[in-house]
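This section describes the prediction task in plain terms. A model, or a person checking by hand, is given the sequence of a single protein chain and must write out its three-dimensional structure as a string of tokens. No templates, partner chains or ligands are provided. The sample shown here is typical of the held-out split.
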Amino acid sequence: MSLNPELAKLLNAQINHEMSASYSYLAMAAWFEQTPYAGFASWMFVQSAEETTHALKFYQFLLSRDAPVVLEALSTPKADFESPLDVFAQSLKQEQAVTAQINALYDLAELVRDHASKNLLLWFLNEQIEEEQSVRDIIDRLTLAGDDPSSLLALDREAAARNAGKGL
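The expected answer:
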């Protein structure tokens, strides 16, 4: 079964969204590198790599369906933030936008009865639940820590221990 042209177009767009998210997380990591929060920088760097992996899943899926891969330019990501809490708040907004994009893709795959695409997208929908929850947990903890340096450094240490695929 060939890939529906509109679905192929949106799957290609999702590669760009995932790479843009990766680029954004890299900018967040770079911002943290200029602060005492090396653990948060590491967390963001791991997140950037994870988003690149997500883009490559879409890339490989398109190729496996004999659909062309069309790469587009990436926008310059936001690179200046007010605080660790601000960075993670931006991260949550980004994850929520990706969730909405994946939901729209799933809706279209369902409409055109493309079960293989639905299967791929179900994986991403489950992944997005984890992504959003992980960031919300950090936001809750940063909010609780407030401006307390000891608490912030403890959270930063925990963030440094993150492995690819695992949250704080």
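For orientation: Residues 73 and 165 are 27 Å apart (CA to CA).
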